[in-house]
């Protein structure tokens, strides 16, 4: 998350004030323009389309981002990711691969269960206000062990050992929200609801993210990754 080209005093002042002035982040962005041959997406919708196009290439086994040495020197000068991905830590879920994006294109926040805690929220604020990301994707996935463990904890009325209860407590609201409807596949329903709830938080949490979203400069969406097929579907 380091950036040698941003003025730390300006960055801290604007982040603490919750203003939108750093959305431009001129010095940071200009330092990283050479990272990719593609122009930075102009809108959140453009950013989403770029991700979905990349996923289509991944499914077709026709990636274009295969030479990671290209742009290495430029990346040392700064970063300009166009989207943030809130992803599960599951080893089978690799955002850069499944969206066919090269180094420097995605700002990834990962932890088991792909929920947004205070640290994740701060990371997304940095990505949006300082790095200029246009889009946040909260990406759930099939056979999520963290959601499955939360369901088991609720059904058995027990908590897992160690620090795992913190994961269960974060995911629990999504499970409770879908349980009354008695879905045929509780794991799938809870996984989807967990992604939706966290995407909503990413777009409405003030002051920084909510202000950017209200101005049309940021969008958050929920999505689901099917491991067996490689397909990302918007929820």
From TrEMBL:
Cofactor(s) of this protein: Zn(2+)
Co-factor remark: Binds 1 zinc ion per subunit.
GO MF term list: carbonate dehydratase activity; zinc ion binding
UniProt-listed GO biological process terms: carbon utilization
Reaction(s) the record says it catalyses: hydrogencarbonate + H(+) = CO2 + H2O
Residue sites binding Zn(2+) per the record: 88, 90, 141, 144
Record has Metal-binding as a keyword: yes
SUPFAM superfamilies with a match to the protein in the record: beta-carbonic anhydrase, cab
Family, as annotated: Belongs to the beta-class carbonic anhydrase family.
Protein name: carbonic anhydrase
Gene3D superfamilies noted in UniProt: Carbonic anhydrase
E.C. numbers: 4.2.1.1
Keywords: Lyase, Metal-binding, Signal, Zinc
One Pfam family it belongs to: Pro_CA
Signal sequence residues: 1-34
